[in-house]
Amino acid sequence: MITLVSYPRSGNTFLRNVLFQVYGIASSTYLTDGHGPDEGWEDASVVKTHHLPQDLPQNLLDRKVVLLVRDGRDSVVSFAHHRKDVIAHNSSFVQNLDEVIYAAEGSHFGGWSKHTEAWMQRADVVIYFEDLIQNPIEACEKLRSFMELPEAKRDQLPTFSDLKFGEPEYGSGKYIDSQNLAPSWFRKGKVNAWKDEMSETQQVLFWHLHGEMMEQMGYRLNGDNLKHIEKSINTEKKLILIEASKLSEPFFDGIKRYVRELLLAAKSFQSSVQIDGLINGEIISIEEALALEGQEQRIKQNQLFILAKNVLKAILPDTAYNSLARTFPIQKLHSNRTRHSIEKAAADYDAILLTLPQHFEAVKGITSSKKFAIIHDTTHLSHPDLHEENNARLAAEGMQWIRENNVQCIAVSQSTAADLSKQGFDSTLIYEGVNRKTFYPINNQHLLQLVKERYELPNQKFLLSVSTLEPRKNILRLINAYSELSEALRNEYHLVLVGRKGWKWNSVKIPAHCKDQIHFTGFVRDEHLPALYTSASGFCYVSLYEGFGLPVLEALACGTPVLVSNTSSLPELVGEVGILCDPLNNESIQRGLESLIQKSKVTQIDHQCMRQSWNFSWQKTWKETLNYLT
Question: Residue 452: helix, strand or coil by DSSP?
Fold first, then answer.
C-alpha cells in the first residue's frame, strides 16, 4: 500500500489514470478541503494526497511514500490556472500566481519548496513529472519494488490528449460534478510551460523563495538540464559537535545569526551525520539547540553572567576589571560544566566545529580526530581600538590555541582568508549565506504598515542602516555625511538607524539641524527586519571593517539597493550591484548616499540585487562545511 504525494498540479492525476488503465489499480484521494476524503480511502492500495506530513493520519504515514515532483514553476502556473478555471472562475490568474508563489502563512500546502522538502525526508521513491510524461510505464515500474503490480497492458496506455478530451476515471469530475472537467483539469502536460506565462518579476520572486530547493531537486534556473536526485541510504553516520553557545545570548548579532542559520541548514541534512550542539558546557541535540530561543530559563541563566559582568565593569576601575576578567573569564566557568558533560558523552566525535575563537575553552579536552574553527575576522589585531580589551584578549588567546593545536580554519570571506594568511594561518574559504525564505520583498501592506507604526518610522522615504551602534560600524561618519546632504534631500529621505546601543555609543552627537530627520528604532525583532528592508529606499553599511556583513545580504535579498564601504569583505558581497564609498571620507560617503538615492528612484524592487544574493545560501554554506569536516 502506498501514499502517492505531490504538490498540486504535478501530474498526480495523470499517474493515477495510468495505474488504472495500464495496471488495473484503482486509487483514492485524501484531502480535507473541498469534498473531503474519498469514502473507504483507508482500504485503497493507493491513496493520493497533497497535504503536508503533519496534516495526515498515521495510517497514511505508515505506508510507503511515493513522491511525484515537478518543476515548481510549472506547478504553480498550473495551480493558478486550475484555481481560475475550476475552483474560482472569477479569480485573476496573475493574482492567483502571486499568492501561490508567496504561499503566505503556510497557505497552498505550505508552498512548493516547503512541501517538497518535508516529503523528501519521508519519500521511499521519487518520480519526476518530466520522466512520467516522457515514459509513463517506466515511471510506474518504480513502484514494483514495494507494491504488487500486474503485467502492464501497454496498448491501454492513455496519452495526455486522450485524458484531456475523453472521460478519464480521475480528473473528469464525474463523481462530484455533472460537467466533464477533464479539458480544464488536464491543461498542457508540457515541460517549461512557465516560460511563456510567468512575468520576469514572478520568475525572480519564485526563484528567490524556492530556488534552493529547486536546485536541491536538480532543477536549473533556465529550466534546462534536469539532474535527477535519487534517494540514498547511508548507514554510517559521522558524529559532529558544533560549539553553539551564542544561541544562549539574549541579543542577536552576526555571529549568533551565523550559528543559528548553520544549524538550521544542518538539520535538513542529518541523514549522513549526527550533529550535537555544545552550549555553555552542555552537550545537547541540534533540535534542543535550535529550540533554545524559546527556553527562557537557559537564556536567563546566561543573562545573569552578562548582568554580573556589566555591574562589575561599571563599579570597578578598568585595570581592576580587566585583571578580574583575565583570572575568571566566563568561558572558563562554562568550560568547567563542559568537563562534566564530556564524561557523559557516548562517543568520540569525528569532528568538532568551533564557531568563535573566543570560545576555545569550551572544546578543550573533547576527543576528536579533527577540530575546525570558523574565523569571522581578525580585527582584534588590525583594529584593536574597535574592541573592548577583554574581547581582543580572548580572540588572541583563541587564535593562539588554534595555532598550537593545529586546528583547521574556515574563513568566511576572501578578505578574512587574506588576513589569516598574513598571520601564517592556512584557511578554507566558505562564505556565509542568507535565508531567502525570511528575507524577500514583502508585499503584505498590512504588515508593512504595522512595522512602520511599531517602530515609529517616518512617513517620508528613508535610508536604512542595521547594526549594533558601536565604533566599528562607523555610524558617526554616516550621520555626518547624511547631515551634509541638501535640506531638500534630507526632507525627502530621512535616515533610520536600527540596532541596540553598543560600547562607546554615548560619544556620538547628532547635528542639531537634522535631529528631526534621523530616527533610532533600537532593537528590531528578526521577523520585522524584512519589512524594514522592503520599505527602505536604500541601505547603508559604511562599516570600517567586516569579516562578512550579513545585513548587506539581507538588504540585497529584499531587493533594496545598497551603499557599502570599499574595504574588507563588503565588495565581495555586493559584486557589480552595490555602490562603494571610502568609509574614512565623509565626502565619499555623502556622494554614495546621493548615488543611492538616485538608484532607488529607478525601481522599487531591484531584481539585480535579489539575483546577487542568490550567490550566497546557508544550504551551500553547510554543504561545503560538511564536506570539509568529513
Answer: helix
